[in-house]
Design brief:
The complex is a heterodimer of chains A (about 350) and B (about 375). Chain A has about 350 residues and is α/β, with parallel strands linked by helices. Chain A folds into 3 domains: about 5-120 and about 165-180, HUPs (Rossmann fold, 3-Layer(aba) Sandwich), CATH 3.40.50; about 210-270, SH3 type barrels, CATH 2.30.30; about 275-355, Translation factors (Elongation Factor Tu (Ef-tu), domain 3), CATH 2.40.30. Chain A has helices at about 10-25, 50-60, 70-85, 95-115, 155-160, 170-180, 200-210; strands at about 5, 30-35, 65-70, 120, 125-130, 135-140, 160-165, 215-220, 225-230, 255-260, 265-270, 275-285, 300-305, 310-320, 320-330, 340, 350-355. The radius of gyration of chain A is 22 Å and the shape is globular. The two termini of chain A are about 40 Å apart. Chain B contains 13 helices and 12 strands. Chain B is globular and about 65 Å long. In chain B, strand 6, helix 7 (about 195-200) and strand 7 (about 205) form a beta-alpha-beta unit. Chain B has a 7-stranded mixed sheet, sandwiched between helices. A 3-stranded antiparallel sheet of chain B has the order 9-10-12. Classes of the chains: A alpha/beta (about 350), B alpha/beta (about 375). The interface of A and B includes residues 35, 67, 68, 110 and 115 of A.
Chain lengths: ~350, ~375
């Protein structure tokens, strides 16, 4: 079996490459670093320093290493939609779109073209095969580092050609392996935040260079009373409380809705910030949709952010969308965010995903 | 990895000629002196350096004092662009604009853009035509009286087109009489008589490793009467035009390599052109949807640029490497990724078409067995990608 390992220059993908090279021999494993971002960045997988780290780890392991320039696809499928989303008052998750369109589409296709049987990444998640030959996607062994959420959009076709070699390890074990193997990335800090946004300018600085930002009115969710101004309505997220101040009763306010065309942000007290459910589009399934009960729904656990809690819920598919009803009302999830659904009978198993409308 | 390797990336770097290696070994291992010193050891190094400079000057058709040794082609181009401009800027009638072609190597293109940012000068980038040759009408339009510097390459590094330098020089002298004319002759030196270029231009850059010399060694020809401000201030070596202890072995290797190149140039050019045509004809015939970029009569013998419809060159390079054939796709950036070609873009090619381009570049050591290897490997690899 020939495997192409996506190497970001971080410790997880370095160890993923090392484990594969140990298991299968260096001749069957090739490293690849994706050049995704043409602009400046100080973290993530696109700085020259990170590419150098990936290349030197590959050299150390005796692996051939390539750099693939997917910058125009990244712009088209990740950065442009990210900017467009904010212009529409949505909050997209660029890491998930990158996985969906770049790592598990463009790179899988490139790997197949080059005669590889599989693509491996350093994600903390597990893939297994059941008795019927169906692939399962499960949470990584390290619950604190689990990344199954950002992979929840994968289906059978992709999982058949994916490997996650560090999914069985805790982060501490990954670092210990890196030390044992003498990898230069052993002590490298985890990457944070969005890779194409520089820490010195932040999301607002990045977006302000790419789109017009508009001030907006802050209004009460119930009375419609004018409560003041926000500097840029496009930078406000549903569920946000930072910068929203306090109500007359002294309790914090939360954003309940963002209306960019009307230049309006609606806020309310904590009880207004929760919702009974959420509606998802772009549904995906790891192994087809679950069987529906007599009421036309199925039970699931919903995870609404990268490290959010598992929320018991019922999911009703209808007209290409998924109506999710939480057992207990939950904080509103911003439009554009991804919700990952897990199997309540096997809580580590991903069922599928959807994007909040 | 395939055992038999076929190297068709001579335009990126060509193997060291035995004559160059021999000339260098003496100064890498034997001589200790810094040529600027006042003792016997220094004198021996100084003699080697001046011998190399004399030899280079003769081969380039200029006087020894007109040869400034540099760390390579990029430094020579950078020194030419910034150094010539800065010398003019302190004159009584400082220039306001500079001109280069949009198909220059990044060593020139980015130096010109940096100069424009640094000084506020207006940069006029002249696009080539679809034939990969500078558009002389557009050049004439760009060359006005306030232009102080014009840079037009002798041979394009990606597609191999030989630029009409006679006409370029005539245009510049006619329309911008005060302008300095710089020519990047890095890709010309292995194939053409550079003395013909130095007869036309005021500044000419060459790089040793493109013609069988060592990496890290190059030269800028500065014709007498051309002002030049140094980019590196220091000990004042190279007559104050480029400070730093000279690379004695590099200069000796560069001179020996150029001498060897010139001696067998005629035979090499006709032999390599025949191999190049065989490769081009063979691939156009066997691989459907293959287009040869630019007319053969317009190109140097060593460069064959082909576009394979529907193929991503980045992937094809990897498959060919696995099959033992080393070629390149466009220019590589600092991360090692293949950048979209600004040359093909300037010629007006669509993005997908430009991404399908592969440069096969041959050199003095290229054999017919290597061409056979490529003729077998390329159709296989393209077919795999089209599956």
């Amino acid at each position: 079996m020939r495997v192409l390992v996506a190497m970001s220059g971080g410790v997880d993908s370095s160890v993923a490459a090392a484990l594969l090279a140990e298991a299968h021999g260096p001749d069957t494993v090739v490293g690849a670093t994706l050049k995704l971002w043409g602009g400046t960045s100080d973290s993530g997988c696109c700085s020259v320093a990170d590419v150098d780290d990936a290349r030197r780890v590959a050299d150390h392991l005796g692996l051939v290493h390539h750099v693939f320039n997917f910058a125009s696809d990244f712009e088209e499928y990740v950065v442009d939609p990210y900017v467009r989303g904010h212009a529409e008052g949505r909050t997209p998750n660029p890491c998930i779109e990158c996985n969906r369109h770049l790592k598990f589409d463009r790179l899988l296709e490139r790997a197949r073209d080059l005669g590889f049987d599989a693509v491996a990444t350093g994600h903390h998640a597990r893939r297994s095969v059941d008795d019927a030959g169906h692939y399962r996607l499960q949470r990584g062994a390290d619950s604190k580092k689990d990344q199954s959420y950002v992979l929840a959009m994968l289906g059978q076709g992709q999982l058949a050609r994916c490997l996650f070699p560090v999914g069985e390890l805790t982060k501490d074990q990954v670092r210990a392996e890196a030390v044992r193997l003498g990898l230069r990335t052993a002590a490298k800090p985890d990457s944070q935040d969005v890779c194409f946004i520089r820490s010195d300018e932040g999301k607002s600085g990045f977006l302000s260079r790419r789109m017009d930002l508009h001030p907006g009115r802050l209004v009460d969710h119930r009375t419609g009373d004018d409560l003041g101004q926000v500097a840029a309505v496009e930078l406000v997220t549903v569920g946000q409380r930072r910068g929203m101040g306090h109500g007359r009763d002294g309790r914090r306010r939360f954003v309940t809705a963002v209306d960019v065309p009307a230049r309006q942000v609606t806020v309310g007290p904590p009880e207004a910030s929760v919702a009974d459910g959420v509606c998802l589009d772009t549904p995906t399934w790891v192994d087809g949709p679950p069987r529906l009960d007599a009421s036309g729904a199925f039970a699931a656990l919903a995870q609404c952010s990268a490290h959010g809690p598992s929320l018991p819920c019922r999911v009703r598919p209808a007209g290409g969308e998924l109506a999710v009803t939480f057992d207990v009302p939950q904080r509103r999830v911003a439009p554009g965010q991804t919700v990952a659904l897990y199997d309540p009978d096997r809580p580590g198993d991903v069922l599928g995903s959807g994007v909040v409308r | 990895m395939a055992k038999v390797r076929t190297y068709l990336d001579h335009a990126a770097s060509s193997p060291l000629r035995p004559e160059a290696l021999e000339a260098m070994l003496e100064y890498l291992a034997g001589h200790v002196g810094n040529p600027s010193g006042a003792h016997t050891e220094a004198r021996l190094s100084r003699i080697a350096l001046d011998d190399a400079r004399d030899r280079l000057a003769e081969l380039l058709g200029v006087a020894p004092g007109e040869v400034v040794l540099t760390s390579g082609g990029t430094e020579a181009d950078d020194l030419a662009v910034h150094g010539a401009w800065d010398a003019l800027a302190s004159s009584s009638a400082p220039p306001r604009a500079l001109v280069c072609t949009a198909m220059e190597h990044h060593a020139v293109l980015r130096a010109c853009r940096a100069l424009a940012r640094r000084t506020g000068a207006e940069l006029r980038e002249v696009r080539p035509g679809k034939d990969g040759l500078v558009d002389l009408d557009a050049l004439a339009e760009a060359c006005t009286a306030e232009v102080g510097l014009v840079s037009v390459m002798a041979v394009n590094n990606e597609i191999g087109t030989v630029q009409p330098l006679d006409a370029v020089a005539a245009t510049v002298r006619d329309r911008s009489p005060d302008a300095v004319l710089h020519t990047d002759a890095v890709q010309a030196a292995p194939w053409l008589d550079v003395a013909r270029v130095t007869a036309l231009a005021d500044l000419v850059a060459v790089s040793a490793h493109k013609f069988g010399g060592p990496k890290g060694s190059g030269a800028l020809v500065v014709r007498d009467g051309t002002g030049l401000r140094p980019r590196i201030d220091g000990g004042g070596q190279e007559r104050g035009r480029r400070s730093g202890t000279p690379n004695v072995a590099g200069a000796a290797g560069m001179a020996a390599a150029l001498a060897a190149t010139v001696v067998d140039r005629e035979a090499t050019v006709s032999r390599v052109a025949a191999l190049r045509d065989r490769l081009g004809d063979g691939l156009v015939a066997t691989v459907a949807g293959t287009t040869e970029t630019a007319d053969r009569d317009d190109r140097v013998a060593g460069i064959l640029h082909l576009r394979f419809a529907g193929i991503e060159a980045e992937a094809l390079v990897v498959l060919l490497d696995e099959a033992g054939v080393a070629v390149s796709a466009g220019a590589a950036c600092s991360s090692g990724a293949v950048e979209p070609s600004h040359v093909l873009e300037a010629m007006g090619l669509e993005a997908a078409d430009a991404r399908s381009g592969i440069r096969f570049s041959l050199g003095a050591t290229t054999t017919s067995a290597e061409i056979e290897h490529a003729l077998a490997a390329v159709p296989d690899a393209v077919e795999r990608l089209r599956d």
